[in-house]
Amino acid sequence: MRKKILLMGKSGSGKTSMRAIIFANYTSKDTRRLGATIEVNQAYFKFLGNLILNLWDCGGQDQFMENYFSSQRDNIFKNVEVLIYVFDVESFEIERDIFYYQRSLESLSSHSPNAKIFVLTFQKRKADILKYSKPLEIRCFQTSIWDETLYRAWSSIVQELVMNSSLLEKSLNEFSNVIEADEILLFEKTTFLIVSQSLRKQHSDLKRFEKISNIIKQFKINCNRFDTTFQSIEIKNDNFTIIIDTFTPNTYIMVIVSDPKITPALTIHNIKYAQKHFEKLESQT
């Protein structure tokens, strides 16, 4: 199944850098060598087996933006599943930014009224964006290519695109209860974005999932540079055991267990036992 994602915003706002970090294994420093996008750059990314993300990275120069709302309007805004609009943190042309943003919303409402809308910006502008978005519903994230906030935003976006996300979460909750895990997370294998999670015990660090995505993704990239393959990680101390392992053909699983009576070997056995069930669910995405 193919789903169209529009990535829009002013030139220099970081759209292409985000795409390169998430989908092309760039580091934040690597993005400095990327040039500006000319017109529209289309790319296809396989995600969780049958799901194909058709990402339209739209150049943000004024002449291109004007074309999107006139001669290219039907082509750009038709059959869109998700619009991701990125605001430039360093922009001094706030009124012009809002003008283009509202025109994007108008065009999207006409051609893809059911599309989900995500805005990536910084905290000071959030209230204004929510005001100028009415009556449409949007989700707003404060993001930076230099920390884990990028993974939080993009994980939320892709979770909206997974067809059986509620069934996947239900199965993960049942699995977590059976093996008495504190937490379980499913990561997409290439991007290491979180596609589902189960939480049985509260934790004080609300950003821990995104931090893990960022850390493991960078570790995986470094492994590739040295011609080695990342397979699994096991961490055990007096307070908990963490296991990160390959799960289905397109996911990694992370299981956190604090009960000292549950051995890592038992947890690994349970992970292997559950694989076939989740492989079947994955094939239905």
Overall mean pLDDT score?
A: 87
- The succession of helices and strands, N to C, reads EHEEHHEHEHEHHEEHEEEH
Approximate helicity band: 25-40%
Q: Which radius of gyration do the C-alpha atoms yield? A: 20 Å
C-alpha end-to-end distance: 8 Å
CATH class of the largest domain: Alpha Beta
Q: Write down how many β-strands occur, each being a DSSP E stretch of 2 or more residues.
A: 11
Give the strand order of the largest sheet, numbering strands 1, 2, ... along the chain: 2-3-1-4-5-6
How is the main sheet built?
Answer: 6 strands, mixed
CATH architecture of the largest domain: 3-Layer(aba) Sandwich
Q: The CATH topology of the largest domain, please?
A: Rossmann fold
Please indicate the percent range of residues in DSSP E strands (runs of 2 or more).
Answer: 15-25%
Shape: elongated
- Please state the structural category: alpha/beta
Sum this structure up briefly:
One of its GO terms (cellular component) is Gtr1-Gtr2 GTPase complex. The protein is 40% helix and 25% strand. It is an alpha/beta fold and 285 residues long.
Give descriptors for this structure.
5-stranded antiparallel beta sheet, Rossmann fold, about 40% helix, 9 helices, Beta-Lactamase, about 25% strand, alpha/beta, 6-stranded mixed beta sheet, elongated, about 280 residues, 2 domains
